[in-house]
Amino acid sequence: MNFLKDNLVASIIKNGGIYSSDLIEIHLPETFGFCRGVCKAVKITQQELKRINPKKIILLGEIIHNPTVNNYFQEQGVKIIREEDYSKIKDSLGTENTLIIPAFGVTLNTEKEILSGPCKVLDATCEDVKSIWKFVSTNASLGKTNIIYGKANHAETKGILSRAIKEECNAAVVVSSIKEAEKLAERISKNLERTDSLTVFNKKFFNPYGFALCSQTTMLYDDSLKISKIINAATKTVNADFITCKTVCQATRHRQHSAIEICKKPLDLIFVIGGYSSSNTTKLYQIAQQYNKQVFFIESADAITKSQIIHFIPELKKEERTAFPYDIGKKIKIGILAGASCPFTSVGNVIRRLKTIDD
Predict the structure, then answer these.
(1) Cα gap 130→64, rounded to integer Å
(2) Over the range 153-166, which residues count as b (16 or more CB within 10 Å of their CB) and which as e?
(3) How large is the average pLDDT for residues 158-185?
(4) Cβ distance 270 to 294 under 8 Å?
(5) Which H, E and C letters describe the chain, residue by residue?
(6) pLDDT greater than 70 at residue 97
(7) What pLDDT is attached to residue 307?
(8) Cβ distance 272 to 266 under 8 Å?
(9) DSSP readout, 209-225?
(10) C-alpha 163, offset from chain centre
(11) pLDDT by residue (tens digit) across 55-94?
């Protein structure tokens, strides 16, 4: 399957990103869908599918956070296991097997374990993620406290964290919001010992005079800048060293800025397409909510019918069903956003489903 090509989407892009008919007008952002890192991961997996029996291929977690893509590979025979379950099956694997590391990477211990095994290993880790690994590892060696702006339970952040701490050397802190960054800033500026409300690892080696800040690649870019300013201001009050690395990737920034431009338009509703577990898609949803009251986070075209929309509420972590909000006979303007892990084919299928409103 070619996830990167959809003729309908291509024709709309050629038309300036707008599709219009008697009853519907659809607007696409300038930048959306698969990013470079996701393309690399999907292509690596597809190429290996052609080379060996798919049943001999094992993905260490979802290749990307998109159910359409992952389900396709599973249907071909590829096995997807949780990273933490690798140790349970490693003794049953041999030279005939291929292990594929997903786009978000794996923890350092898992990487060492699989590289010492008999399987062929294909590394689909995004290069932007690897640059963060290098940054935190270097600063850990220097004894600095690494600060990671990200979701503590996200695969990418787990991989970063595993490289951000060197035992007997330094500590690491994960902050998931501006509010948590402000708590950390207070702890730094007032030299407070209590860190109960913060997610601190290897706390014993917390260095109050040396800090390094990075971000999970898919976080909100504007928030990452705000957090950098907050931490920087706190470190200045105690003359602590502070270094930062702009690690929200370019693809994420471009998609977020393109989303803002679309959301500023007078739209009746906005669809955000992507996997429910996708961090970058969730951020697009949050951006859209700032501009429009009718925003629907969906995984695929199957979520849309003429009578209702099945959509996800990230803050509640559940699906809801909402009556399709449009008046018969009135032209409706719709914006579509798609995360960096969303295939063009999924965007095309949603547009085709929406076109049935004309019928």
Answers:
(1) 16
(2) ebbbbbbbbbbbbb
(3) 95
(4) yes
(5) CCCCCCHHHHHHHHCCCEEECCCEEEECCCCCCCCHHHHHHHHHHHHHHHHCCHHHEEEECCCCCCHHHHHHHHHCCCEEECHHHHHHHHHHCCCCCEEEECCCCCCHHHHHHHHCCCCEEEECCCHHHHHHHHHHHHHHHCCCEEEEECCCCCHHHHHHHHHHCCCCCCCEEEECCHHHHHHHHHHHHCCCCCCCCCEEECHHHCCCCEEEEEECCCCCHHHHHHHHHHHHHHHHHCCCEEEECCCCCHHHHHHHHHHHHHHCCCCCEEEEECCCCCHHHHHHHHHHHCCCCCEEEECCHHHECCCEEEEEECCCCEEEEEECCCCCCCCEEEEEEECCCCCHHHHHHHHHHHHHHHC
(6) yes
(7) 87
(8) no
(9) TEEEEEE-TTS-HHHHH
(10) 19
(11) 999 999 999 999 999 999 999 999 999 999 999 999 999 9
Q: Compare 22 and 234 and report the one with higher pLDDT.
A: 234
Question: How wide is the angle at C-alpha 277 spanned by C-alphas 67 and 2, nearest 5°?
Answer: 30
d(CA 63, CA 42): 7
Distance CA 262, CA 266 (A): 9
Distance (Å, whole) CA 266 – CA 273: 20
Strands 318-323 and 308-313: antiparallel
Partnered with residue 79 across adjacent β-strands are 58
Rounded to whole angstroms, how far apart are CA atoms 74 and 311? Answer: 24
Confidence of residue 147 (pLDDT cuts 50, 70, 90): very high
Asked whether the predicted pLDDT for residue 196 surpasses 70, the reply is no
Q: Which of 225-239, 242-256, 299-313 has the lowest mean pLDDT?
A: 242-256
Q: What is the three-class DSSP state of 144?
A: coil
Q: What is the pLDDT of residues 303-324, one digit of tens each?
A: 999 889 999 999 999 999 999 8
Cα 35 vs. chain centroid, distance in angstroms?
Answer: 11
Q: What is the pLDDT of residue 309?
A: 95
pLDDT at 328 over 70: no
